[in-house]
Design brief:
Elements (H helix, E strand, L loop, with lengths): L18 H17 L3 E2 L5 E3 H9 L3 H6 L1 E4 L5 E4 L4 H10 L9 E10 L11 E10 L4 H18 L5 E6 L3 H16 L7 H9 L10 H7 L11 H16 L5 E2 L11 E8 L8 E7 L3 H4 L7 E7 H10 L12 E5 L2 H16 L4 E3 L6 H11 L3 E5 L1 H6 L1 E6 L5 E5 L3 H15 L2 E2 L2 E2 L2 H4 L5
Parallel strand pairs: 1-5, 7-8, 12-13, 12-14
Antiparallel strand pairs: 2-4, 3-4, 5-6, 6-11, 7-9, 9-10, 10-11, 14-15, 15-16, 17-18
Helix pairs in contact: 1-5, 2-4, 5-9
The structure holds adenosine-5'-triphosphate and magnesium ion.
Length: 446
């Protein structure tokens, strides 16, 4: 097939008849985040390559293997963002948000780019809902972001996700742990994958996150970080667990979770689904107390998570979660003749100004073809306007689902439409056990 009609491997179009699902998920994420005091931020899709090398860490899979990096025409090295935290942190520093009241609670929707092997739940362009809480050191914050993610799942009706948490300590306790890991893995150096052999010296914890089955098996018996935590990290972790318990959030401690990104400290967590195959991690996050300093700012304990929106939708579909119906037009105006078209545009303008969705034919089609189109688009009501209707100033409004017809005035069309459509909605409404007397509301119109 010609390249121009073929999307890039690992990318996915969202089509107009399915986008309502994305919109619903996004609106839910945003409204929950707002309930926790978060405000949306938007940052560019590309950044200087150095930002990710520093901010994600150059011993990670993401930086070593997965980034879309290129030189622009000015010879600068540019990278399409592989994740959202580094850009948000850059903006936090560059725009002086660090001087405002802390914590700064930020959330975002981002497209992310990673050169990975595409498969179910793994794309080269994917989307994340992310939150970052810059400037919060208390374990309350760790528990709160986990609660935020959990509430999003609850509101979307997603159930059965496994929450796994761990603490990966701070640079102090990790030094001892690195030593123990190096010692352990050195015995098996020859068996390790090439990348891990290189990582063994620089960042042995990465070995626990390797996807190769042989390395995974070796990692099974590796020393566990929880045995090496310093008192402060231990206490922090205990408090996070206590706060989660207080909120009735179930979790499992999994000492093998280290997260793919270099800047994490203390708490790390993942929400994992068993229903969508191997790529089951729907949300991953944790604390990254060292990142802001690493990028040149003041020491600013911070934390956040990234939620994979495609994976989240896959889980919802696998679990049969309910989505709202796609939106349709409230009214289709079938206009025949030039005078009727003038009337149609006038009515459509007034109706749209009132917030109704209105469509009409844009192809000079005959009446039958217009009605067929209205039917296909699923419009709730239609009205046919011809010369006759224009002359008399009245037309018939038809409910496309029930077939019920009502006469409406073309002069007071918007009001009449309100009455008819409201009457429909209120018909079944009972107040105090009695059918709602709609007529009493509009009594004057009788
Ligand atoms: P994985 O272990 O699955 O590769 P990761 O540790 O690389 O995940 P993060 O960098 O933590 O993932 O990104 C946060 C979330 O973004 C993941 O939990 C997942 O839901 C989603 N995600 C990551 N990579 C992809 C991808 N290639 N395609 C779709 N979603 C992804
Ligand atoms: Mg990955």
């Amino acid at each position: 097939m010609a390249l121009i009609t073929k999307a890039i491997k690992g990318t996915k179009d969202v089509l107009p008849f399915e986008v309502h699902k994305n919109q619903y998920i996004e609106a839910t994420c945003l409204s929950v985040a707002e309930n926790f005091g978060y405000k949306e931020m938007r940052t560019p899709v590309f950044e200087h390559t150095e930002l990710f090398q520093r901010g994600v860490g150059d011993t990670t899979d993401v930086v070593q293997k997965e980034m879309y990096t290129f030189d622009d025409k000015g010879g600068r090295s540019i990278t399409l963002r592989p994740e959202g935290t580094a850009g948000a942190a850059r903006s936090f520093l560059e725009n002086g948000l660090s001087n405002l009241a802390l914590p700064q609670k930020i959330c975002y929707f981002t497209s992310c780019y990673r050169y990975e092997k595409p498969q179910a739940g793994r794309l080269r362009e994917f989307h994340q809902f992310g939150i970052e809480c810059f400037g919060a050191s208390s374990p309350l914050a760790d528990a709160e972001i986990i609660a935020l993610a959990k509430q999003i799942f609850d509101e979307l009706g997603v159930s059965g996700l496994e929450l796994e948490i761990n603490s990966i300590g701070c640079p102090e306790c990790r030094a001892e742990y690195h030593k123990a890991l190096k010692e352990y893995f050195s015995q098996y150096k020859e068996q390790l994958c090439h990348t891990c052999q290189e990582r063994l010296e620089r960042n042995p914890m990465r070995l626990l996150d390797c996807k190769s089955p042989e390395d995974k098996a070796l990692a099974e018996n590796a020393p566990e970080i929880l045995d090496y935590l310093c008192d402060e990290c231990k206490e922090h972790f205990e408090k996070v667990k206590a706060y989660l318990n207080a909120m009735n959030i179930e979790f499992k401690v999994n000492p093998k979770i280290v997260r793919g990104l270099d800047y994490y400290t203390k708490t790390v967590f993942e929400f994992i689904a068993s229903s969508i195959g191997a790529q089951g991690t729907v949300c991953g996050g944790g604390r990254y107390d060292g990142l802001i300093e690493e990028l040149g700012g003041q020491k600013t304990p911070s934390l956040g998570f990234g939620m994979g929106l495609e994976r989240l939708q896959l889980v919802m579909e696998a679990q049969g979660c309910e989505f709202p119906e796609p939106s349709v037009s409230d009214l289709f105006i079938a206009a025949m003749g030039e005078k009727a078209k003038l009337k149609a545009v006038e009515i459509a303008k007034d109706m749209r100004a009132e917030g109704f969705a209105v469509t009409y034919d844009l192809n000079d089609r005959g009446l039958r073809a217009q009605m067929k189109y209205a039917d296909k688009t699923g419009a709730k009501f239609n009205v046919v306007i011809g010369d006759d209707e224009v002359e008399k100033g009245v037309a018939v409004l038809k409910n496309m689902e029930s077939g019920e017809e009502s006469e409406v005035s073309l002069v007071t069309f918007v009001n009449d439409f309100y009455s008819v459509s409201m009457e429909e909605q209120l018909k079944d409404l009972e107040i105090n056990g009695e059918a709602f007397d709609f007529k009493s509301l509009f009594g004057g119109n009788e």
